[in-house]
């Protein structure tokens, strides 16, 4: 199993609007692509929150090929939607993990 992990630092002033967008629009759209079989959305605790709150969105797929298909056909457009809506008020980085156990 592969986990596409997106960690995001969100400016405090837009957290409520951003969370609503994530839960009502972005995550459902990610799941509707059909390449991910499960998702998780969390807030990191015990973090320095002086510059905003930190969240993690995780998308699970069965094979690395599914993730690669997402990258080729969907990633740029999906990331651009967030940039268009929130600009530099949300900063993210992405990692790819393989579940061992």
Note down, in words, how this protein is organized.
- The chain is of the alpha+beta class.
- The protein has a single domain (2-98), classed as Alpha-Beta Plaits, CATH 3.30.70.
- It contains 2 helices and 4 strands.
- The protein has helices at residues 15-32, 64-86, and strands at residues 2-10, 38-43, 53-61, 90-98.
- A 4-stranded antiparallel β-sheet has the order 2-3-1-4, covered by helices on one side.
- The longest helix is centred in the last third of the chain and has 23 residues, at 64-86.
- It is globular, with a radius of gyration of 14 Å.
Summarize the structure.
The chain has helices at residues 15-32, 64-86; strands spanning 2-10, 38-43, 53-61, 90-98. It is α+β, with helices and mostly antiparallel strands.
Strand-pairing-aware structural class = alpha+beta
Helical content band: 40-55%
Oligomer: single chain
Contiguous uncertain segments of 5+ residues: none
Run of helices and strands: EHEEHE
Q: How many H/I helices?
A: 2
What is the number of domains? 1
Q: What strand line-up does the widest sheet have?
A: 2-3-1-4
Estimate the mean pLDDT confidence.
96
The CATH level-2 architecture is identified as 2-Layer Sandwich
Shape: globular
What percent of residues are in strands? Answer: 25-35%
Largest sheet: 4 strands, antiparallel
What is the CATH C level class, in words?
Answer: Alpha Beta
Terminus-to-terminus distance: 10 Å
By DSSP, the count of extended strands is 4
Here the CATH topology equals Alpha-Beta Plaits
The gyration radius over C-alpha positions equals: 14 Å
